[in-house]
Design goal:
The protein has 2 domains: 228 residues, 3-Layer(aba) Sandwich (Rossmann fold); 191 residues, Glycogen Phosphorylase B (Rossmann fold), CATH 3.40.50.2000. The strands form 2 sheets. The protein has a 7-stranded parallel beta sheet with strand order 3-2-1-4-5-6-7, with helices on both faces. The radius of gyration is 23 Å and the shape is globular. It contains 18 helices and 14 strands. Helices cover 50% and strands 15% of the residues.
């Protein structure tokens, strides 16, 4: 059966993906950037390796995008503390990761090679990493199979296997069984993930499976530590501002009218409006829509300072500042939940904000934890958004417990990065 899936993936699935990708190149700049970047991967690796002595220990980490790198960063830092002379290569699948992540803990940054067997095997032979380490979900069968053939141990951390996942359907499960059983170690986020993984492995694998949690909590906590000393006051002492973060078109269509109602009903209320894709056309359209309705609007950009005291609406045209901006609000709505899946809800949680988001959160442990604790809520439509925020704004006694509950989710889940580093070294 193993060879059957090898054949299906290499000879049938990969060519189909290539054809679809080739068509997409005509319409999607990100696909083009990613493809052209992959053409340079081998050259980048060769140039980097030529600078080394040849006897260094190399760990190769893979993160799909910027979000997955935030899970990876505390592991990189922890590994550097334990093995300061080790070299860390980090590959990205998405241009959003490759182009926006510039971190001192990375010794060499590359695009992940295309998942052709001969391509990934050649890259692995060139690097010969001590271990190949994947974050979260972005695993590539040929890369894993090639590493297994070359005797390179593979590790997956922050692994999630949600209830009802297609990976557990009979035929699909058999395919993934022949992928996951080739991992040397897999570290899941929760015990439930662990149990679902064991169903997939069918107790026929030598893979080490442990429950270690999500290192992203560690990243959020360490990033926020410098703000907690500056923001010791309760959220009720902050300006009455709602942060609408990572807003997709789908979010805007559903919540926009409710946002306007809130702005009109609460004279002292202001908002930060943060589009997911802050390109000029999106920023201009956002400003125009609010101004046409009579609201005073300012734009926070690289050229224009952040005026946090005066305008009714601030449209944010800067990437990478959300974790700071949350500390100037009292409630957050995080976008993506009506389209591709919610964005980062940990950053507003550590900033002590009650958090709302759309219904597509099922693969996000932190969102589930927020709902259980009373620090977050999923909404199905704009009316639910209005009703929930209206309750919070009209009764201060509702905000404080939700604020504490949101922050507590972060604090009780830290420590995963240390466990993952220990596992990478010992397992």
């Amino acid at each position: 059966m193993k060879y059957f899936w090898f054949f299906v993936y290499k000879i049938i699935l990969i060519p189909i993906v290539v054809v679809i990708g080739a068509i997409g190149l005509c319409f999607n700049k990100k696909l083009r950037d990613g493809l052209f970047g992959r053409f340079q991967t081998r050259k980048v690796l060769k140039n980097y390796l030529n600078e080394l002595n040849g006897d260094e220990i190399i760990y190769w980490f893979h993160a799909s995008s910027h979000g997955e790198f935030l899970q990876t960063k505390p592991v990189l830092l922890g590994l550097k503390e334990v093995e300061p002379h080790a070299k860390l290569i980090v590959s990205f699948f998405s241009p959003s990761g490759y182009q926006h992540v510039n971190d001192k803990s990375i010794d060499c940054k590359i695009y992940l090679p295309l998942d052709f067997y001969w391509t990934v095997k050649s890259a692995l032979r060139l690097v010969r990493p001590e271990k190949l380490i994947f974050a979260a979900y972005d695993i590539w069968p040929n890369l894993i199979w090639a590493a297994k053939e070359l005797g390179i141990p593979t590790v997956l951390f922050a692994a999630r296997f949600k209830k009802g996942t297609a990976k557990l359907l009979p035929v699909v499960r058999n395919f993934y069984h022949h992928v996951y059983k080739n991992f040397h170690s897999i570290y899941t986020i929760t015990k439930t993930d662990h149990n679902h993984l064991q169903l997939m492995l069918e107790n026929s694998s030598n893979t080490t499976v442990r429950v270690f949690g999500n290192p992203r909590y560690d990243h959020v906590k360490s990033t926020a530590d410098k703000f907690t000393t500056e923001h010791t006051k309760s959220v009720l002492s902050r300006k009455k501002r709602i942060i609408f973060a990572s807003i997709h078109d789908e979010d805007e269509r559903i919540i926009y009218e409710s946002v306007l109602r809130l702005l009109n009903d609460y004279e002292s209320l202001s908002i930060l409006w943060v589009p997911h894709e802050p390109i000029p056309s999106v920023i201009d359209a956002s400003v125009q829509r609010f101004e046409e309705l009579g609201f005073k609007v300012s734009v926070f950009s690289k050229q224009t300072p952040y005026d946090k005291d005066d305008p009714k609406v601030i449209v944010v045209d800067v990437v990478g500042v959300l974790s700071h901006l949350y500390w100037d609000g009292i409630i957050a709505y995080v976008g993506g939940g009506f389209s591709t899946g919610i964005h980062n809800v940990m950053e507003p949680a550590i900033a002590r904000l009650p958090i709302l988001f759309g219904p597509k959160y099922k693969n996000f442990h932190e969102a589930e934890e927020l709902i259980k604790s009373g620090g977050g809520w999923s909404i199905e439509n704009g009316e639910e958004l209005f009703d929930k925020i209206n309750i919070l704004l009209s009764d201060d006694s509702k905000i404080i417990p939700a604020s504490f509950a949101a922050t507590d989710v972060i604090h009780r889940n830290v420590g995963a990065a240390t466990r993952v580093v220990r596992g990478i070294i010992r397992d």
